[in-house]
Amino acid sequence: xxxxTQNPRYLITVTGKKLTVTCSQNxxxxxxxxxxxxxxxxxxxxxxxxxxxxxxxxxxxxxxxxSRKEKRNFPLxxxxxxxxxxxxxxxxSSLSSGRAYEQYFGPGTRLTVT
Amino acid sequence: DAKTTxxxxxxxxxxxxxxxxxxxxxxxxxxxxxxxxxxxSQGPQYIIxxxxxxxxxxxxxxxxxxxxxxxxxxxxxxxxxxxAVYYCIVRDFNFGNEKLTFGTGTxxxxxx
Lengths: 114, 112
Fold this sequence. Notes:
heterodimer; A: mainly beta; seven-stranded mixed β-sheet; B: mainly beta; about 0% helix; globular
């Protein structure tokens, strides 16, 4: 089944404790992206990647890192999480950029930083 | 990307067709109309997209006016599982960031 998976689905952590949220897709998609969703602010893009080893900042990249060493994986790294990073996070992928392809979203990771 | 306007909320009886309007009066010639939905904090789900012609797939139909300034998403036989927030997004495609800008959407409630 074609899908985007994220792990963990739920995470409660403390300020400053490094964490990684994994994202994996099995559709051989070139383009991947991370969003966060907060009440009243909608979905905001954090980082995106057009292909392996090609990543770039979205609208709200501060406090986050990403890497794209393999086509299928696009982990989101919070080196020193803070309470303002408490949010619902979504990973998305599409076949490639530059065409009108649909995007597939993961099920979400609900992160709470205390 | 062009701005869209959608009603805040709508109700529809189960089994009836749900017609969700979207206004995009500033759309430009290369911009596509996309529809996504989000069911209660799940990941957004792609529904359909189109440029000029009407489109239909297994989930829905998309009707785009001739001047392309508005469109309607039609769910032909709504079920309770169609209760969700529906987002109309207008965007161009170019080689680069495929960021989707989600507005506030329409909260569709299917009534039993």
